[in-house]
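Q: What residues go here?
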């Protein structure tokens, strides 16, 4: 089982790494960010869109924030403009940190039941496991974006968790 210290650390790691990737992607043209590169969600822009969408879905389940008005197929295109995507990412990372900072051990106890659009059915799982999944999902897709940025000539900074600034 994970604890609140892990969640607080990972919420900050999420913000730090998003700043890293978005800063690197800022140096690319819009065309380069949208170029189909063979990733699961196609482009840098599409993958970053999906990642924000997924965070919004999970936070709606955990904290009651607004759900995105789209499913997985539309998750890559919810924010068409780079500036909008970047601004919303910055804002939502702060919301994730605020959520993490308010958690206590009781919030991780028990199960959460939710409808999964991916498998088209209700799922029930331990809350702590689902929170760990969110951070794993973020890391997975950020790793893809890191690779796509590198292929495009970008040079993202370090991703080493122990280097997270305090």
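A:
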């Amino acid at each position: 089982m994970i604890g609140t210290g892990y969640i607080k650390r990972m919420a900050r790691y999420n913000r730090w790494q998003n700043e890293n990737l978005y800063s690197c992607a800022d140096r690319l043209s819009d065309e380069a960010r949208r170029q189909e590169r063979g990733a699961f969600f196609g482009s840098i822009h599409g993958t970053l869109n999906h990642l924000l969408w997924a965070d919004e879905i999970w936070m709606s389940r955990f904290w009651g924030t607004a759900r995105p008005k789209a499913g997985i197929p539309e998750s890559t295109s919810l924010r068409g403009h780079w500036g909008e995507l970047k601004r919303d990412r910055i804002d939502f990372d702060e919301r994730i940190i605020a959520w993490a900072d308010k958690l206590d051990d009781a919030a991780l106890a028990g199960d959460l039941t939710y409808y999964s659009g991916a498998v088209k059915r209700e799922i029930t799982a331990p809350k702590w496991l689902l929170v760990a999944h969110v951070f794993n999902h973020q890391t997975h897709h950020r790793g893809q974006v890191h690779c796509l940025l590198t292929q495009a000539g970008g040079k993202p900074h370090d991703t080493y968790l122990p280097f997270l600034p305090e």
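A: Context that may help when evaluating the design: The domain at 4-163 is CATH 1.20.120.450 (Four Helix Bundle (Hemerythrin (Met), subunit A)). Strands lie at 111-116, 121-126.
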